[in-house]
Specification:
Strand content: 25-35%
Strand order of the largest sheet: 3-2-6-5-4-1-7
Helix content: 10-25%
Number of helices: 10
Structural class: alpha+beta
Low-confidence stretches: 1-22, 35-54, 345-353
Mean pLDDT: 82
Radius of gyration: 29 Å
Shape: elongated
């Protein structure tokens, strides 16, 4: 054992002297000095097996496979990234003397998974070798069998999975991304994990300048730079291996801690986007009131009959949706809307149950000129109402085509909207009574 330990130390020194050490797992935004923690020469991918799926390409699903504790393979690498609670309750014990070791002492050390063992009394140990000191450590499963524990997706506290970091570094360095949230972070602490939140424009083009380790829950730290060289980052979960969170916990504020919650690949579904290039530069107006996202990343209500020019149609990773960039013809403001150009035949024209996500349901080609209508009629039309004095043209713009019409011998006409249970009555001059 001592010979192996000396060999590891000698190899580490030789690598440092020869300049062969790989990039540190610790990366910082450029206004903060970087910390140097050397990485092992062995960078092999120990990803476990996963069932093949025949579906559309998906960057995260196709490259970052979830590794259940039940199927961990020897050689998988993790880094000890304790949170405040972990500094009070020790996670690991030294295998040579069975004494607990402070998580603070092991902080930022790399643990390499070996195996799990069970005693005759039913006690389970999950075993590791520390790459930094060559010593053996174990985590004792609190209770129950190994199978019971691993199938509950509990994992080993404090450990951030470095397999995801290595893959992300290989695939993302230098890539162009677009921001999908407005809240990111900047480092504030040279040696620690201090940060401040910063506001970033939605759909901002950025370039990946560094990838390192984040935290146990969100192990991949992606640092990007905008066109002005300003750097900011997000810690994200990729495969969710050992992150300690269930998939259904990645909602609300946690959404941005997934890759797709914060970023979109520049070449996402590029072929599909070209298919819809004919829409770019054309005017469309909304047939119904809808929700869009403004440049600040805020959800806003857009009234029906609002006119836009489509500036861009861009594919979205692994989905049937396309992102529209729309510029208001009235105010010049820019908005974003995710739509599908094909409806789901199983849901009567709905897209995942939401009709307004279907482009041809929500948008009509052309623009609406309100200058020839009284202001009160414009307001009513945008609210989908028919009011006294409106012409048939106005009513059609306000409510669409009627289910059926009824005329009498005096030239008066009724428009019946059966779905709403509404009847609009016109006088013989064709104006709402």
């Amino acid at each position: 054992m001592e010979i192996k330990k000396l060999a590891l130390i000698a190899l580490s020194c030789l690598m440092g002297m020869s300049g062969m050490a790989q990039e540190s797992y610790f990366v910082k935004t450029k206004n903060v000095k970087k910390t140097v923690v050397k990485q092992n020469e062995d960078n092999s991918d120990t990803a476990g097996e996963a069932e093949e799926e025949e579906s559309a390409p998906d960057f995260v699903r196709d490259n970052f496979k979830f590794q259940s504790l039940c199927n961990w393979k020897e050689g998988m690498k993790f880094m000890v990234m304790p949170e405040k609670y972990d500094l009070i309750v020790n996670t690991f014990s030294d295998a040579s003397n069975n004494k607990e070791v402070s998580s603070g002492k092991l902080q930022h050390k790399i643990m390499i998974y070996k195996n799990h063992t069970e005693t005759a009394e039913g006690i389970t140990y999950i075993n590791f070798v520390c790459q930094d000191d060559g010593k053996a450590y174990y985590y004792r499963v609190p209770n129950g069998s190994f199978e019971d524990y691993c199938y509950n997706k509990m994992g080993v506290p404090t450990l951030a999975y470095l397999g995801d970091v290595d893959i992300a570094r290989t695939l993302l360095m230098g890539k162009t991304l677009y921001t999908k949230t407005t809240l990111f972070r900047e480092d504030t602490d040279d040696m620690g994990e201090g940060y401040r939140e910063v506001k970033v424009p939605l759909n901002e083009e950025v370039k990946v300048v560094a990838v390192g380790v984040g935290s146990r829950k969100f192990p991949v730290k992606i640092i990007v730079a905008d066109k002005n060289g300003r750097e900011f980052y997000q810690n994200v979960a990729m495969s969710k291996t050992n992150c300690g969170l269930r998939d259904d916990e990645f909602i609300m504020d946690n959404t941005k801690f997934t890759f797709y919650g914060s970023f979109e690949l520049a070449d996402a579904n590029e072929t599909s986007a070209k298919q819809y290039a004919s829409y770019i530069g054309k005017n469309y107006y909304t047939r119904y009131r809808t929700q869009m996202t403004n440049e600040k990343g805020e959800k806003v209500t857009v009234m029906r009959l609002s006119s836009f020019i489509i500036n861009a149609v861009k594919g979205m990773n692994g989905t049937k949706y396309m992102k529209l960039t729309l510029k208001s013809l009235k105010t010049g403001e820019v908005f974003y809307k995710d739509v599908a150009f094909e409806h789901d035949d199983n849901v009567a024209g709905d897209i995942d149950g939401h009709r307004e996500d279907y482009f041809n349901y929500l948008f009509q080609k052309g623009s609406v000129d309100f200058s020839k209508y009284p202001a009160s009629h414009v307001t009513a039309m945008q609210q989908g109402k028919a009011i006294k004095g409106m012409t048939k043209e106005c009513v059609k713009m306000a409510k669409g085509s009627p289910t059926r019409t009824v005329k009498d011998r005096n030239g008066r006409e009724d428009w019946i909207y059966a779905r709403e249970g509404v009847v609009v009555k016109f006088d013989k001059n064709g104006k709402v009574m």
